[in-house]
């Protein structure tokens, strides 16, 4: 499978790397549950205010251990208790996502795409 040797992080480590921060305070808001070009689901320790606009930041591992920020704005559309006690899922709509965010969506889509790949024998 092309590109496998270039992976810097293992799949089970992705939640650690895909932490979402408040861009203003740099405090963690939670972890990405999923994302698309239009929105994301955040898993956090508390319910978030529906209708509120959040200034968010993702910190993506870059070259030579330098973290690259991706800043964006998102509005909370819904929140509900997760199946895991003490965790909440919140859905967000992105307002004009930056190109770096859209690139991340595509990179993750490619990273997790297994269809069409057959193991070498």
UniProtKB/TrEMBL annotation:
Molecular function via GO: cyclic-di-GMP binding
Superkingdom, taxonomy of origin: Bacteria
Pfam families (UniProt xref): PilZ (PF07238)
InterPro entries per the UniProt record, alphabetical: PilZ_domain (IPR009875)
Domain PilZ: 6-104
UniProt name for this protein: Pilus assembly protein PilZ
Organism, as annotated: Pseudomonas flexibilis
